[in-house]
Write a structure and sequence with these properties.
The chain is of the alpha/beta class. The chain has helices at 37-50, 89-98, 111-118, 135-143; strands spanning 6-16, 21-31, 55-57, 69-72, 78-84, 99-106, 128-133, 148-156, 159-163, 168-171, 173-174. Strands 3-4-5-6-7-11 form a six-stranded mixed sheet. The longest helix has 14 residues, at 37-50.
Length: 176
């Protein structure tokens, strides 16, 4: 019997003064049985950084044809493809060919090693932005996950602060 995903309810209060986007989101996330809590945290953070009315979580890790998060235009074209993790360059090349904008958010203790191996083969395109979350930030946020998540995220001056109700984490997003 196949394992079923774990369902999480997310109440996200977002105040992004960099983009002048202030919104409350009531979201449902499915954590695939093979997905770590840290990866799910990065999906939430990536959603917050790119939040819009059109942005949605996809089937993600359970399908190779979709990113983790995307925004589609009314005509079905992909406006934004958001990938998290350490994908192969071919997957990012496919994304660049299909979407108007592509954002890749890497994370993990091995992110630097992955980038040193795969980074040279990533497509060079003005459509692609690559960033990385500091592992300790992600690990700290993953420790306190409940099936009902209520986070307030503030973004200002390129800085991100996540209030989990039990503390505030200053999340660092950097490059390679």
């Amino acid at each position: 019997m196949a394992l079923k995903p774990t369902i999480y309810k997310l109440n996200l209060d977002l105040a992004d003064s960099d983009r002048h986007h202030y919104q409350n989101y009531q979201l449902t996330l499915a954590q695939h049985p093979s997905e770590t809590a840290e990866r799910m945290v990065v999906r939430i953070l990536a959603f917050a950084l790119n939040a819009s009315e059109a942005l949605t979580f996809t089937k993600g890790i359970s399908t190779s044809d979709e990113p983790d998060i995307w925004a589609k235009e009314d005509n079905g074209t992909i406006a934004l493809w958001v990938e998290v993790g350490q994908p192969k360059p071919d997957r990012i090349r496919k994304a660049v060919n299909q979407a108007a904008q592509v954002r890749l958010y890497a994370f993990s203790k091995t992110a630097d090693t992955w980038w040193n191996i795969e980074g040279k083969d990533m497509p060079t395109s003005n459509k692609l932005q690559v960033a990385r979350f500091q592992w300790q930030n992600v690990a700290d946020l993953a420790q306190d996950l409940d099936r009902t998540i209520r986070w307030s995220i503030s973004i200002a001056g390129g800085e991100m602060y996540v209030d989990t109700g039990s503390g505030v984490e200053h999340v660092v997003l950097g490059g390679f």
